[in-house]
Amino acid sequence: MEFRQLNAFITVAKLSNFTKAAFELGYSQSAITAQIQQLEKELGVNLFERLGKNISLTSEGEKFLVYAKQIIKLSDEAKNNLSTSDVVKGTLTIGANESLCAVRLPPILKEFHERYPEIEIILKMEGNNKCKTLIRENQIDVAFIIGQKINDSELITELEFPEPLVLLATPGHPLTSKKHVHPEDIAECNIIVSEKGCGYRNLFEQSLNDAGVTPKSIIEMGSIQSIKQLTMSGLGITLLPKIAAAEELKRKQLIELQWWEDSFYLTTQMVYHRDKWVSRALRAFIDTSKEMMKS
């Protein structure tokens, strides 16, 4: 098994086309085909299903793609970490959910890029559970997760801080006239939430369930921006990280409702796998993140 074969396999899988993969890698199509055939012969499985001009990964190909990416990534990390140069290089893959990608990470990434311009950054926007899976599969190096405090022996938490949440409504919504909002007040309201598995959706729904309250309806949206837009339109109320709605609150496009008991809080945590090889690039990112969040 050779690195050129792995690179050919990864590129064909990405482009779903032998001709395009050959062009991208600077090989002839026949050379790419031969490399894939050699790899399939060594592994004893078909990696691609070929139907006319259409190709797709087989189930074995899907599984092997994870390992192929890990092998290439570890090779690149080894080269970068064994380099005698003082310049930190490499590729860093970071996972985070939408709200953190939009608000928390930009200033960190900007500062990190200014300090380490030779490090390539790949940002994957995924939910909490998906980020944990990608960490375990070594497909991302580090993740920012917002939710309950993580108690997982496989994960190391390098940074954590409280993330306040706010209950939001449009100006003029009936609940804005209340000094405090109780769970039963929400029984006649639509609640606008993110996809299942999101930490703040789980917290909101659990709070209502504990009080025996069922909202009028649940409207699920795929992005925070769409949640805010629907809430501003008056369709319902929502619970979001305060930092994600800071501009709308400042412009009074959204109003913070006062919950009847202690405010909602979750924790934002930066985690990586306990068996992860902490490269120079990863250590630099961890240190920069800690410095930025404490400033």
Automatic annotation (TrEMBL):
One Pfam entry name: LysR_substrate
Keywords: DNA-binding, Transcription, Transcription regulation
UniProt keyword annotation of DNA-binding present: yes
Entries under InterPro entries matching the protein: LysR_HTH_N, LysR_subst-bd, WH-like_DNA-bd_sf, WH_DNA-bd_sf
Signal peptide bounds: none
GO MF entries: DNA-binding transcription factor activity; transcription cis-regulatory region binding
Designated name of the protein: LysR family transcriptional regulator
